[in-house]
Amino acid sequence: MLAVNTLPGLTDAGLADEHMNDSRRMMRAMLVPHTAAEGATARAAIMMEADADSISAALRRLFSMSDHEREMIGMNGRCLVEDRFQWLRIGRQMMDVYDWILGLGDRPDCVMN
Question: What is the pTM of this model?
Answer without folding.
Answer: 0.55
